[in-house]
Fold this protein.
Amino acid sequence: MGILGIDIGSSTIKIIEYKDEKILSKGIFESKNYEAVIDEFLSENNIKEIHKIVLTGINSKKIDVSKYNVPVEVVEEFNAVGTGGLCLAKKDKAIIASIGTGTALIRAEGKEFKHLGGTGVGAGTLTNLCKKFANSKSFEEIIELSKQGNLSNIDLRIADLTDENIETLPPELTLANFGKLSENASKADIVIGLVNMVFEIIGMMTAFASINDDIKDIVLIGNIVSIPVVKNVLKKIEKTHNIKFTIPEDPQFAVAIGAIQTLLN
């Protein structure tokens, strides 16, 4: 029998079945009917028995899992973020950027976790701006459009103003997000511009958080970090700051994994 790890955020609920350091089943749901979502997850994955439920997330106190008649543990979210980020990235210490509806920054070293702050810019920002300005219908559509977009129709960059080298600043560095918005910009161009803007903001927040810290490893977790072009945005920031970004496997489920690992370790 495995453990059910449930991360209940402000907009989605992430569930995993976890056993022997492995995810056996996983799912992301948008419904606010938490109990019905759990039943759906168990049914879809043909899970007949579990021996414990571990809850975390901002809405973890709003769920009733008593009907499953198994022990229930609630783990503080920042601890779950720190533990899950380190576990998936296989690091002893890092700054974890947990990107949900907004973004929280957690300094994690061993079993010590500190909330450094954050920003209201996150997945909620990206999905709603894409819906408003590019008429995107789903997260999957955002991913596909971002692959097709051309930033040169959107952003003003150093290369647009000069072909000379400016100290250590790369020519592709953004001077103004949407500072060169073309009348001919397509939906895909707008989406890649929004993805670039959101992750430049988040990336720079983590860079500033690390300035006076010996930790230079940044681990990004959350659903939207799975957008492929995000890595290109982060590489630009790595070139101008002494930091290294890591996007681990299964970043969407890091907090649920962290909740379980908090209790196991």
Summary: Residues 187-210 form the longest helix (24 residues).
